[in-house]
Each structure stands twice: as C-alpha cells, then as structure tokens.
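Design a sequence for this backbone.
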C-alpha cells in the first residue's frame, strides 16, 4: 500500500470520527433550550470505542477522545479529536455550522496533512451525512439517545470500508 493511500485512510477514519461526533452532538440538545442552536450546551469531553472493518474483512478496535467548544449561539462548533487503533493514529480538527437543521463543515487531519468538507441533515434523532476529502467519499449515519451516540460510516471502495463507534459524554 502506498504512503498516500495510508494517509487518506487515516484521514478518512479521523474525519468520520469527528464528523460523527459533532453531528451526533447536534442531536443531543436539551428541550428547554430550543431557541438556541443544536450545539448549545454541547461543549466538553467525549470518549468511546468501536471497530474498523478493512476491505479485506479484517477488524481492528479503535479508541477516540473528542473535545468540543460551542459558540454562544449554539450554531457553531469547534472540535478536536484524537483516535487510535493498532495501525491508525489520527489528530483531527474541524469546524461545523448549523443552519436550520442542515449542517456543513470543514476539517483538517494534522498527522497526514489532508483536508475536506462534510454536509448532512438532521431528522429527529438521526443524522445522515456525506463526507468528502481530496480522494475519497463516505456515508455517515448517526443515532443519538441522551448522552450515548451510535455512529456508522461506510466508505465503499476504500481500504477502510466500515467504521462503527459508540461515544459517551465524560
């Protein structure tokens, strides 16, 4: 496998994890704060683990830690995410903006120096999004129940074909 392919796979995992975390966070707002955006009261630390499925069918465990900083309006979010598995180590930073239930954002993975964008929609407790990088694309589905989040990422044709992660606010 080439170094570029490895960098892109690492970036995909990092981006997916971060995108999932911030999208999921947007689903967890408290009912009493409906006038503020979906990122209101979401600042803080989150952690979790999951599984990466490679295109070969093999699996690896992954652990992630995220820090989120929501602006006062609750419609802007800055994030930092670190994830690691046996063969992956990523350091991700990103920004997200909510506009009427539509979320857009950009990201940069520091370890591999790659960047991209994401966009999606929020319907009830589910988020559906598309993640795009310079040479890859992925589909993201997130479901949130309280302080627990379930994330699924599919990237057909990529070396990392599937990622599932469960996050909990610490």
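Sequence:
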């Amino acid at each position: 496998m080439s170094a570029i392919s490895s960098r892109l796979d690492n970036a995909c995992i990092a981006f997916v994890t971060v995108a999932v975390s911030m999208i999921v966070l947007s689903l967890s707002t408290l009912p009493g704060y409906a006038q503020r955006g979906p990122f209101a009261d979401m600042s803080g630390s989150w952690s979790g683990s999951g599984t990466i499925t490679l295109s070969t069918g093999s699996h690896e465990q992954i652990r992630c830690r995220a820090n989120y900083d929501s602006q006062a309006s609750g419609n802007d979010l800055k994030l930092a995410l670190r994830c690691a598995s046996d063969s992956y180590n990523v350091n991700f930073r990103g920004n997200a903006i909510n506009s009427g239930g539509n979320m857009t954002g950009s990201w940069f993975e520091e370890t591999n120096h790659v960047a991209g964008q994401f966009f999606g929609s929020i319907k009830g407790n589910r988020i559906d999004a598309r993640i795009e990088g310079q040479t890859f694309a992925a589909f993201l589905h997130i479901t949130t129940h309280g302080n627990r989040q379930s994330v699924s990422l599919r990237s057909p044709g990529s070396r990392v074909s599937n990622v599932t992660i469960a996050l909990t606010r610490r």
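Strands lie at 44-54, 59-70, 76-85, 89-99, 102-109, 114-123, 126-133, 137-145, 148-154, 160-169.
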